């Protein structure tokens, strides 16, 4: 997810200092051809938000990463040109902070000398690690950094060592608008976006650019807000057919709760930031009805696929809960790295990078993935429907 990216500017000085310090620490890798691994292990790093504001996402991804690593190791490891090598996972907490993410990336690449990195979860933390992974020539696969420009440099060229397993914001915002038009037949829509994140504003922009009906209101809120009654009252007076709320479950849950309490029963639609079990807990199960959100992973869809169903059963057996989308994406990110190593027959970080860029028709638990020239995955998207706090339906979107 791209939560907290607007905070990047407020921390530029600190972040820049961290980058400079990290740059000094990676001097040995300057001009190098990347990292190589020991004879019996492949070191894979995880730069994740295990504490701080985005810990919910980071810890879900940690579960997916750990499950994939243990599963691969139990099966004998990664096949590196005919030689099976176990994965040594090096897990580090970036504390949902951009400066920490930068220093974690420096540590993973220069001290730990990992072959590849999974994470971070958020665009802001992911962006912060780019100078250090680029200097070290070590690829990173973010399970969930969705900002449209995440994999690109300022001049539009691709970031060589940056990849992701999730779709980008402009794609899911566009598909949400199409769903609202084609499936919900909504002709009058209100937009209520999180303006404290590029995630919320990016989704809102893509939605509005695609939606052909009438946007009767366009309002914003900020992360941490608690009272949404005034804006929701104005929406009610405009007789909207649906409300598009691109944001995170923490605030969207409260928006749903307050909307239903004042008698607004129209569909409330959002993005994958709503795909968390805590959403109906915050909203109240009965209030979480007629709720829709775009997501890369649906347990209903996955249950019909033997490959994905096997993952779901393993996840539930280990963690005693259904697999959330963020865990599934992180699980796929590890297997994307494994696939790149095995197709390139090498665990050299530069060759892994080349292998990731060449990924075609990769079978993941979240669907088939092909990496495009901008290092974004061409992959399926699903819209889930929630009724009484439970997933009641799912719709594949072409």
From TrEMBL:
Signal peptide stretch: 1-27
Keywords: Signal
Highest taxon of source: Bacteria
SUPFAM superfamilies (alphabetical): Periplasmic binding protein-like I
Gene3D superfamilies tied to this protein: 3.40.50.2300
Keyword rRNA-binding among record annotations: no
Keyword Cell wall biogenesis/degradation among UniProt keywords: no
Domain Leucine-binding protein: from-to ranges: 42-382
Family the entry assigns: Belongs to the leucine-binding protein family.
Name of the protein in question: Branched-chain amino acid ABC transporter, permease protein
Species for this entry: Lactobacillus apis
């Amino acid at each position: 997810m791209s939560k907290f990216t607007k905070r990047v500017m407020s921390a530029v000085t600190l972040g820049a200092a961290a980058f400079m310090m990290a740059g000094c620490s990676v001097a040995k890798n300057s001009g190098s051809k990347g990292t190589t691994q020991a004879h019996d292990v492949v070191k894979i790093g995880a730069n994740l938000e295990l504490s701080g504001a985005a810990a919910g996402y980071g810890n879900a991804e940690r579960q997916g990463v750990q499950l994939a690593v243990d599963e691969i190791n139990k099966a004998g490891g990664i096949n590196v040109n005919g030689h099976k090598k176990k994965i040594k996972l090096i897990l580090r907490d970036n504390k949902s902070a951009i400066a920490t993410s930068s220093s974690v990336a420096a540590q993973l690449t220069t001290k730990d000398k990992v072959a590849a990195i999974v994470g971070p979860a958020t665009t802001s933390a992911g962006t912060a690690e780019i100078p250090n992974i680029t200097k070290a020539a070590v690829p990173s696969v973010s399970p969930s950094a969705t900002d449209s420009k995440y994999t690109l440099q300022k001049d539009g060229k691709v970031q060589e060592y940056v990849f992701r397993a999730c779709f980008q914001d402009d794609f899911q915002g566009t598909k949400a608008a199409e769903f609202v038009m084609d499936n919900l037949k909504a002709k009058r829509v209100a937009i209520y976006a999180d303006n404290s994140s590029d995630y919320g504003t990016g989704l809102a922009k893509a939605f509005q650019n695609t939606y052909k009906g009438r946007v009767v209101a366009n309002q914003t809120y900020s992360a941490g807000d608690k009272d949404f009654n005034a804006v929701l009252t104005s929406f009610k007076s405009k007789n909207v057919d649906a409300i598009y709320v691109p944001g995170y479950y923490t605030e969207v849950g409260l928006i749903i709760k307050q909307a239903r309490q004042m008698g607004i029963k129209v569909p409330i639609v959002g993005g994958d930031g709503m795909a968390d079990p805590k959403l109906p807990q915050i909203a109240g199960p009965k209030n979480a009805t007629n709720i829709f959100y775009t997501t890369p992973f649906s347990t209903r869809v996955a249950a019909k696929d033997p490959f994905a169903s096997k993952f779901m059963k393993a996840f539930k057996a280990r963690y005693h809960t259904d697999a959330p989308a963020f865990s599934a994406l992180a699980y796929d990110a590890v297997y994307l790295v494994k696939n790149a190593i095995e197709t390139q027959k090498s665990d050299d970080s530069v060759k892994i990078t080349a292998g990731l860029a060449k990924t075609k028709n990769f079978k993941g638990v979240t669907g088939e993935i092909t990496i495009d020239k901008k290092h974004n995955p061409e992959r399926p998207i699903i819209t889930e429907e929630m009724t009484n706090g439970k997933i009641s339906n799912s719709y594949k979107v072409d």
